[in-house]
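User: Is it possible to get a 3D structure for a protein together with its bound compound? The compound here is magnesium ion. I've pasted both below.
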Amino acid sequence: MLAILQRIIQEVSQAGDIEQALTIIVQRVKQAMQVDVCSAYLADEKQQRYILMATDGLNPRAVGEVGLAFGEGLVSLVAERAEAVNLDHAPDHPRFHFISDTDEQAFHAFLGVPIIHHRQVLGVLVLQQRARRRFKEDETAFLLTVAAQLAGAIAHAEVSGGIARLVTNANEGVALQGLPGSPGVGIGTGLVVYPPADLDAVPDRQIEDAEAEIEVFEAAVDLAKSDIRGLQARLSVALTQDDQALFDAYLQMLSSTSLIDQVKARIRQGSWASGALRATINEHVQMFRVMEDPYMRERAEDIRDLGRRILRFIQKGRHKPPPYPEKTILVGDEITATMLAEAPLDRLVGVISAKGSSSSHVAILARALGIPAVVGLKDLPVARMEGQSLITDGYNGRVYVSPSVNVRNEYERLASEEAQMTAELAELRDEPAQTSDGFRLPLYANTGLLSDITPSLLSGAEGIGLYRTEFPFMVRDRFPTEDEQVDIYRQVIEAFATKPVVLRTLDIGGDKSLPYFPIQEDNPFLGWRGIRVTLDHPELFLAQIRAMMRASIGHDNFSILLPMITNISELEEAMALVEQSYNELQEDSGEPFVKPRLGVMIEVPSLVYQIEAVAKRVDFVSVGSNDLTQYLLAVDRNNGSVAELYDSLSPAVIMAIKHVVEGAAKHACDVSVCGEMAGNPRAALLLLAMGVDSLSMSASSLLRVKWVIRQVSRSRAQQLLEDVLTMETATEIGQHLGDALVEEGLGGLIRAGYN
Ligand code: PEP
Ligand code: MG
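Assistant: Yes, that's possible. Here is the predicted structure of the complex:
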């Protein structure tokens, strides 16, 4: 059964649209379960009906034509109950509803299971049999498994098909729901970016000159052939004749006219070479995958490998950057920092990434650059987004494909309101972040790119509260040298001159990896990350600390921050290395210079409970609420499936931070909050009330938070904190704080979607 299921899933994942996907499902299930009928009904919310979308066994003319109103028939019963309904004689059931055009009068036995994706019933899968009989437990279990496994693929095909239909029906629009990545509204044209040699990520693209494209393809095939011959020659000493046959098979496939000609035929129809290759390879892979013979099935992987090899050579010849539309919305399966960095900022109006969540680095980067972003759109048909008219609603995590005129007008209005609000907020730049009753709360910026410095200065940041040093490490193909690091850190320190600058030591691992230092782990967020890596590699740590200290010569405005500290031994080891660096530098240079202040990120929950032990050793702590929330709530910050559970306004997170503030105060240790929470106006009210000493956030949030602080009194914030501490859910807390913002005349923030 497992093999059958895997094959169905495989076939469905290749289906171009929902009709094709469902047809494959009903045919394969009917065959595997040896029943008389298998049908799939999908919910149509507009018509409030379950429509028969595919059947093998009922009258095929009924497909797309007949359906049952919500609440009608056994199909609705399955959907309402959200569980299997198994009847040996369906016509006897009070909810049975005979549909005349389906020829279903002949069937007695009925088994229906719901198709559920993210708690939503998408439709119902039904088996019917002439004989009166109850379906067996294992048959029910199998059908439930098929429906559960395929729900995601069905949701995906539904969206994808909807978008394909849009090309011919431009009045409609499709809205896709993801997660807010970076606030703002972006209206523009989709440009798909993808990692090199990833066949699945190649978008559809049209070309004019087919003959030139065929030349590109043929040259790539030739290069792939000589590459494989080279591999074969190199391995001939180590491989048996038998094993070498693989390479012969590759070469044969590369010479096979069917594969090559099919690609060329697609190019002649107007597709670019990469797209034609992807479609042809997928078709061949599909053919092999459905073969009964396991050996032949394995060949599917060879074909894919071959496809990737050819693709690599096609892409090698294309160093030209893609033509970025005037208003580009970057779309990709997983937009990386480098992809963002490659795009011309003056044309970039939005970012859409199928993977990621609001605290993943693509989102952080987009916020730093002030570009609206939507992430975690699991069902996004990336390949179909090229050239589409798109709206990125970064407030609500929504993307509109080919939006209707009404939707477009509404968003244009929102975008201009937003621009006006930004202009008004700019006037606050040089005003202090001070409550109406005179309490000052310094606001700092989080940065990571040197290009963040100007926006941070423009936002009126009073310093840098978190400089993430991973970014300069990420954009190279090796570790930066100590001198290169000095150069980068000096630019940050000097840009802010007398204002505080907090440089955090390297925090790789988790979701941040370096191309030249890969860390492969099953559970990377609980693995080798942050200080754990750098303590294991003191040569990296020492070079970085030395670089930071050298960069600060002549300035006394900088602090060092240690990420991912879990216990006091780690802290003491790190402190000893900092001390060693300091002494060595002092000795080498012969001149005394100011010792940096030292701080610890509070992001692993263990330190919440050891806050006093930490606070008596260091000058300050900085709460990394992104990770603290992730670890306290056991919710992966990058996993869209559990993103709804990830909420920094959870009572657990609020109580943890309050505990940190109180513990640190006993040892005169400063507390900052530098996670995304600090840039959230609602949360900022609570942090202000708790008595944190500063907040650090992306430059794009800073003026909004300043506006909130200037508008309220600290005593009002303290009252709100008291209220919130009696509440038991994040929803209640969020609502209460939102209401308070409205009362204070800050409703604009809520309307604009700031939460
Ligand atoms: C945090 O965890 O809150 C934080 C600021 O660090 P990062 O997002 O870089 O992990
Ligand atoms: Mg962190």
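Confidence is low (pLDDT under 50) at residues 166-170. Residues 466, 468, 507, 603, 624-627, 674-675 surround phosphoenolpyruvate (ligand 1) (CB under 6 Å).
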